[in-house]
Amino acid sequence: MRKFLFILISFILFVNVVYGQEKATYYEKIDNNTFRFFFDKNYYLSDKSCEFKSIERVATLNPKTQKFDGPFKDFNNNGRMILEGVYKNVVKEGLFQAYHANGDLKWSANFMNDIPKGEVTHRYPNDQVALT
Questions:
Q1: What is the end-to-end Cα distance of the chain in Å, rounded?
Q2: Distance, CA of 26 to CA of 52 (rounded, Å)
Q3: How far apart are CA 119 and CA 132, in angstroms?
Q4: Contact between residue 84 and residue 74 where contact means Cβ atoms under 8 Å apart
Q5: With b meaning 16 or more CB within 10 Å and e meaning fewer, what string describes 58-68?
Q6: Among 35, 38, 64, 75, which residue carries the largest CB count within 10 Å?
Q7: 99-124 in b/e burial notation, b at 16+ Cβ within 10 A?
Q8: How far apart, in whole angstroms, are the C-alpha atoms of residue 37 and residue 57?
């Protein structure tokens, strides 16, 4: 009887460990082609509940290529926008803007075919120009 109880308890613990773990969540579907992705500070995909998650990207995906295609916005853990821009056919196109933690503009650049064109101005958090 003791052996049977030991085997039964061991089996229950084993099943609980194997099936009791939650599945990692790296993205959530918002609507048709819009998703929310979770990244760490180096833009590596991260689990939604991971302690290192520091960026959430709301972006449009091309359903055929499964790559970014359209506008996107990145937010920090406090919900403040830190980056916005547009991908067209999987390349950066148009105005990209990054923001400091206080909400002030950090830098802005116009991209054409994944390459910044024209002036790129970097600013300090107090809005003074750091580099052009």
A1: 79
A2: 13
A3: 6
A4: yes
A5: bbbbeeeeeeb
A6: 38
A7: bbeeeeebbbbebeeeeeeeeeeebe
A8: 5
The span from the CA of 61 to the CA of 90, in Å, is 9
> Cβ(96)–Cβ(111) under 8 Å?
yes
> How many residues are recorded in the chain?
132
Average pLDDT over residues 9-34: 74
Query: What is the amino acid identity at position 29?
Result: K
39 φ, ψ (degrees, to nearest 5): -130, 160
- The two tokens of residue 34 are 């819009």
